[in-house]
Amino acid sequence: MGVIMILYYLICAYILGLLAWDFVREKKSVNDMILYLLVLIPLLLRILRIK
Amino acid sequence: MSREWTIKSALIAIAAVLMILGGAPLYKHRHYEVPVVAGPGVTSVIKLSEFVPSLKGSMADADVFVLEGKEPGGKVLVMANTHANEPAGLLTAVIMIENAVVEKGTLMVIPEFNASAGRNTRPGDGYPLYYDIPTEWGAKRFRMGNRDTSPLDQWPDPDVYIHYPDKQLLSFIDVRNTNRTWPGRPNGPLMEKVTFAAMEMMRKDRLNIAIDMHGAETMFPVTNCIVAPQKSAKIATLVSMTVKAMEGFDNHVEPSPPNFHGLSHREIGDFSDTLPFLLEAPIPFLDQPTGPKTVKLLLDGKDPFLLSLSKKKKLFVPYDENGWPIEKRVGQHCSVALEIIRQYSKKNPDTAIRISGIPRYADLVKNGVGRYFHDPAKAEKKSVYYE
User: Is residue B78 a part of any domain in this protein?
Assistant: First the structure.
């Protein structure tokens, strides 16, 4: 795995962390909670090296 | 538990279920192994990483089946799955590995040239994950791959792919397309390493012929043809005329454009002494205006929308109610490859190649593709390779 690819995985993990944190902090809007989770799925699939 | 966390837990559970339902088939597909029985002609199996060591252990490291004859002669390389969503090439390569016997010279076969693309999919386009070829001993299952390398193996893509060494600007996606990364370099992106390894093999082993097997849309002008640069054109023309006269199918010759870089039929000839040929068989499945992308369409090539377009003369190949079945496509690849070898051998008796055991067009149309696959369960364990 090249250095740039590793950096992209780190960026992916960072964005994943931000989304998870936003999901935890969201108190009222169920719509926003769903959106955070939907956006999070492809990032998680990439970090788990599934797709 | 508060109401907020009850909702969040339910949503997390739904997202997890969606992820498992969507992800598990993709994970299984990427790790599914296709057994290939090394036939009586296979004398050794080497890896592309022998020519570029950094490929070792990666999903891009491909097997090279070597079939060496008792009598010395010329050497021919046959590559399939350069584009892993064009399965006629792979099926032809497996038929060669399982059946060919080389009497003079050497045949080298790479069934999964872009091994990573063979483990990639295009679910957004509704591609099936697998297709089954019926045989006398049951169905033989193959993975349906993608045109490009999996981003799990080569990522990220650049905004524009600058081809090496010509600096031609190509589409960003072509950095993962092994028919745009020739001749490659040992320290470039992964797919450049793959093509460089093949180039090194051709240069070091002094290969005489390289045949790259593809499929192309019926609406694309470069289909049902042999693409050849100037140095291969004479042989390609003789092959085209011979298969038309002797076996009754069309396969015209397309000149390799000198200023379009990265393609096997261009760069192999320019960067080595090997004569390159790229074979295109029609594949209706890849055409845009078709019905659902089913396994049936992939294998029989029958589609009512293409039939309608054919009547309006919008296709570049003859097309009727019989579609364009896989037997015809694989048969064309087998016959054209054998004819290239025969015509080359006639012109170059010192480096002639003589091969038997590979069926021709008429045999495949009559018997089907599965007739030529051997049961891995009945084969010796050491002769079964997993691709």
Answer: yes
Contacts of B306 (CB under 8 A, 6+ apart): B218, B284, B287, B289, B290, B315, B319
Cβ atoms of residues B196 and B183 within 8 Å: yes
**Which member of B4, B19, B27 has the closest CB to residue A27?**
B4
Domains: count for chain B: 1
Under an 8 A CB cutoff, do B155 and A51 touch? no
Task: Confirm whether B176 is domain-assigned.
Answer: yes
In a domain, B36, yes or no: yes
What residues of chain A, 2 to 41, have a C-beta less than 8 Å from chain B? 4-5, 8, 23, 27, 30, 33-34, 37-38, 40-41
Provide, as residue numbers in chain B, all residues whose Cβ is less than 8 Å from the Cβ of A20.
none
- Please state the ipTM of this predicted complex: 0.93
Place A2 in a pLDDT band, splitting at 50, 70 and 90.
confident
Q: Which two tokens stand for residue B31?
A: 């790790």
Residues B96-155 pLDDT 10s? 999 999 999 999 999 999 999 999 998 888 999 999 999 999 999 999 999 999 999 999
Say if A51 is an interface residue toward chain B (CB within 8 Å): yes
For residue B188, list chain A residues with Cβ-Cβ distance below 8 A.
none
Residues paired with B211 in a beta bridge: B78, B277
Whole-angstrom distance, CA of residue B5 vs CA of residue B263: 56
User: Quick one: which H or E segment has residue B215?
Assistant: strand B209-216
Helical pair B326-347 and B230-242, crossing angle rounded to 10 deg: 120
Q: Name the residue range of residue B354's domain.
A: 32-386
